[in-house]
Amino acid sequence: MSSKINTKAEKTQALPISNLKSKTYPLSSLPAFPISKRPDNRKNFNAIWEILSQTYPKPEIELDFKTPFELLAATIMSAQCTDVQVNAVTKVLFPKYPTIQNYANADQTVFEKEIYSTGFYHTKAKHIIQCAQIIIEKYDSKVPDTMEELVKLPGVGRKTANIVLARGYGIIDGIAVDTHVKRLSNKLGFTENEDPEKIEKDLMKLADKKDYDDLSLTLIFHGRRVCNAQRPKCDICGIQELCPSAFL
């Protein structure tokens, strides 16, 4: 049986390169910034912050806790996990471990099972237990209240330390940069950096120190409720006219 295939692909002949015409564009029509980066929008920070601070007045952390150590433990568990899920775990966990000594004496295998649903449970359990042991041994059972001391604890970086200081002790040192703060800071044109510590420094140059903690929580709430990573709701966003990423 003979097969005769006459597809359009067979009939289509490639044009010689010499026949292809390239279209040129004047430099004035090209964007002045790399496509992958947002334009510098720092000049609009104050206007954006005024709107957002009115949209989310007096923001409160959504993690449940009663003591600085509970806040420390909850914040460690919140890495790559929602506050809702962490709260569901700590609702059972905190009553079972009422003192820091209880955490220091915890069986890690058992503890891992108790916080399993927060993800990365092995590392989180190890860090929380180690933190308790170190705090008892070096700090007389009191969670440190300085950045320098906090970041020396296992699993504690500047983000966690800033949260513990601000919400556990009312001490404002810096700005907690999580995934939402990182993403929105770039989308809004406040920074070109990807490193959380560099982003924190960039934001600290723009914001008043008294607003550091509120700024972090506000960007988190806006990222969760309006400026979603996959489907940002630009049509209902109060800062769309000031945002270089609106409707992109």
Automatic annotation (TrEMBL):
Transmembrane segments: none annotated. GO terms for biological process: base-excision repair, AP site formation. InterPro entries: DNA_glycosylase (IPR011257), Endonuclease-III-like_CS2 (IPR004036), Endonuclease3_FeS-loop_motif (IPR003651), Endouclease-III_FeS-bd_BS (IPR004035), HhH-GPD_domain (IPR003265), HhH_base_excis_C (IPR023170), HhH_motif (IPR000445), Nth (IPR005759). Its cofactor is [4Fe-4S] cluster. It comes from the Archaea. Gene3D superfamilies: Helix-hairpin-Helix base-excision DNA repair enzymes (C-terminal), Hypothetical protein, domain 2. The keyword DNA repair applies. Residues 77-225 form the HhH-GPD domain. One of its GO terms (molecular function) is G/T mismatch-specific thymine-DNA glycosylase activity. [4Fe-4S] cluster binds at residues 227, 234, 237, 243. Pfam families: HHH, HhH-GPD. Its EC number is 4.2.99.18. HAMAP family: Nth. DNA repair enzyme that has both DNA N-glycosylase activity and AP-lyase activity. The DNA N-glycosylase activity releases various damaged pyrimidines from DNA by cleaving the N-glycosidic bond, leaving an AP (apurinic/apyrimidinic) site. The AP-lyase activity cleaves the phosphodiester bond 3' to the AP site by a beta-elimination, leaving a 3'-terminal unsaturated sugar and a product with a terminal 5'-phosphate. Belongs to the Nth/MutY family. This is Endonuclease III. It comes from Methanolapillus millepedarum.
